[in-house]
Amino acid sequence: MIREINKFIVRTPLHKTAIELKAKKIWKGFSKENSKILDNRTIYSISPYKTGTTFLAGCFDYSISKHEPIHYASVKKMEEDFDGFFIRRLNSLNLKLESSGFWSAYVDQLANHHIGKDLTYICILRKPSSWVTSVVNHWYQIKRYRQNYFWTNELFWKKIVGVDLSNFYEYSEEQQNDIISKMLDFYMSFTKKTGNLKHVHYVWIHDMTNFLPTLEQLMDEKSKPESSKQNKGLVKHFVYENKEIDNEYASLVESLSNK
């Protein structure tokens, strides 16, 4: 019964109100400590959505490793007051590993934060053309759920990246190309900015399993990749190919890895 009620709410205008009320409750329960880390020094996987963050987080016990925890509450507060919220959130979650796509929008803040600048980060690498293909197809699936308030589209893709993905398939080819261009600009800019982080590990999406021993040492934990899963799309209505941007990305990654 509760599941059916929630399903109904998600498809009505009550959806936005419900998640906002939940977020306010979360904020009130957060740690007040914002000047120092109380326990675990969280390692952050900061690559954009659809780069393998689900799999990486799932390789470790849920009590210490999470994928996009308190998602809406986090994106909302980070945009309002990054410095006033970042360490409070870290202390409240007390994780050893977090994989969240929204961190890709805050690399500058992480690199300059008095505590964040000394933390460890993971940048999962994926060819831009493959990434665009995955993101666009992901939104085709989301639309099928008839969700009333596509808040990730409103707060991240529209507000930060500057694109409307929820209506991608309804746009003309010219408009779609403009969206893709803005997505690529964001993706390349994010990747370049990771070079400003002091402690960052670069790992290709197809090589994440081989990276786990290194991550185990960093976390002092044992991974269980067999219990994790990849959030693969069920359908592929759209395919984007651009060898030029893929080659440019490969060169950028090589220069960053050799720093």
From TrEMBL:
Protein name, UniProt field: Sulfotransferase family protein
Domain of life: Bacteria
